[in-house]
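Proteins fold. Shown next:

***
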Amino acid sequence: MRLTRRLALAAAFVAAPFAVQAQDEFPSKPIEVVIHSSYGGGTDTTARMMMIRSRRNLETDMYVVSKRGGSGAAAQEYVLSRPADGYTIMALTQTHLYTIAQGKSPMKIDDIVGIARAMDDPTFITVRSDSDVASLDQLVALGKERGLNWGVANIGGTEHIGLAKFSDAAEMKYKPISFGSGLQMLQALLSGEIDATLPNVSEAGQMIADGSVRPLAVMSEERLADYPDVPTTFELGYPVKTSTTRGYAVRAGTPPEIIEKLSEALVKAMKHSTFANYLMSAGLDPETSPAGWDVWDKQLKAEYETAAEALKKLAN
């Protein structure tokens, strides 16, 4: 099919062979995927899993480049130094959005275009399984009465921002306590150190399955297929959505046809069983997690606005 299309283009533009050649060149060299974290971490692993089939789809090599420092600022500065030609892809997590929102790097949100989402990991609101709190309304009532200790990974991070917005919607008091990771948050919950916490599906799935923790709600608009009995915050009257996302972006100004080509290739790769099995091993849905540029770019821009607003409020 691709060869037929190229021959048709060549026949249509016989008088301009160089223009046809230039249009068909991408990609004519390896593509670098820039991460802001260490090799071997979650962002690196996700990128390498994505690249397994993307190389084949794009018919070129891809390699990972780590630019650590400044909570994503070093990676952002590096991406801004590269041409807007599609050969430099930035692996995006919400950390990048927080760094941009806080003005800690020269990058602005309009400097990038999201090309593909790799994963969307929704957030549960959980308590211990032996807690007297059996519903989200009971948890909110308790929060209004005396305030509660909530576990978050980092102050000013995804869980904290989600908690801040939820507490506003619920008009309740809360105290965030940082533990550094989702696993440590859950361990603190089991030990009784905190009253509630907000782990992702990938973090809490096993503990929900073995009955260690009780999910009171998922912070999304629709119920999750694997957890049909867990209500959403939206249906319970608290329209707050929180999830951890990973995806990929290129510099604004990259030609639209290159953005389309990259998006199609990456999404096709992440819908393949190789990446789908990777998602399922983390408890994520391979049908709903990967998404193309039209969905992902809108989502990351909306997430940025939410983060910027929340961080500004938390700073006051």
